Amino acid sequence: MSFIRSDEATPYEIHGGRFVSYVRPDTGSRDLAAWRVELPAAMVGPTHTISSEETFYVLSGRLRLVIDGESAELRAGDAAVAPAGSELAVANTTDQPARMWVTTRVGLTAELADGSTIVPPWAN
User: pTM (2 decimals)?
Assistant: First the structure.
């Protein structure tokens, strides 16, 4: 069993967002990865296709999530599920920062529109 304290979480900066990794193989998880995403005001993330199912829970603020072309504005307390193989985009279209919690399987990869692949360290 592993306990991960907030001061032990590892932050990563990419595409204008901050990904704070808590649960991953090197913190004791064999199957799941979980992290907090911090999105500044007016941030639009790149569209990407995910290899594994992801779940999202909005902690604060408001976000626009697009999953396979279907768009929803999510507020604190709202959740969403993106199936494996879906095309995904996240944006904070407000003038306030937003945060969400994301969970997926260890080994997640994401393919960007240009065909390049990201192997996020917070999920591997």
Answer: 0.94
